[in-house]
Write a structure and sequence with these properties.
By secondary structure, the protein is mainly β. It is globular.
Length: 114
C-alpha cells in the first residue's frame, strides 16, 4: 500500500521560509516522479514542483526561483524548500507520486500571514 505523509507546514510571516517533507512508502521510490501541488481556497489545484528519479526538476511559473525541490532516495523522502513566501502562497500543499499510477498525500497547510 502506497503512503505519502507530508509534514512541515505551518504559519510563517511574509518573506519567511519553510521546508516541506513528504515521506513515501510502499513504492519503488527511486523510479517515481515526485511532485508538489497546492490548492488555495476557491482555486484549482496547481503544480508547484516536480522532480524525477534522475533529479530533473520542473516548477510552476509562479515559483520564480523561490522554491527548490529535492529528494533523498535513501530516505524515500522528497522536500520542498520555500523561500520569500508571500500571502499568495497560502494553500494546502500536497505530495504526489507518479509511477504507473498517481498517489496523493493528505496535504499540509501553509499559511503566510503577518
Amino acid at each position: 500500500q502506497v503512503r505519502l505523509v507530508e509534514s512541515g507546514g505551518g504559519l510563517v510571516q511574509p518573506g519567511g521560509s519553510l521546508r516541506l517533507s513528504c515521506a513515501a512508502s510502499g513504492l519503488f521510490f527511486r523510479l517515481a516522479t515526485m511532485s508538489w501541488y497546492r490548492q488555495a481556497p476557491g482555486k484549482q489545484r496547481e503544480l508547484v514542483a516536480s522532480i524525477t528519479g534522475s533529479t530533473s526538476t520542473n516548477y510552476g511559473d509562479f515559483v520564480k526561483g523561490r522554491f527548490t525541490a529535492s529528494r533523498d532516495n535513501a530516505k524515500s523522502t522528497v522536500y520542498l524548500h520555500m523561500n520569500s513566501l508571500n500571502p499568495e502562497d497560502t494553500a494546502v500543499y500536497y505530495c504526489n507520486a507518479n509511477t504507473t499510477m498517481a498517489y496523493w498525500g493528505e496535504g499540509t497547510l501553509v499559511t503566510v500571514s503577518s
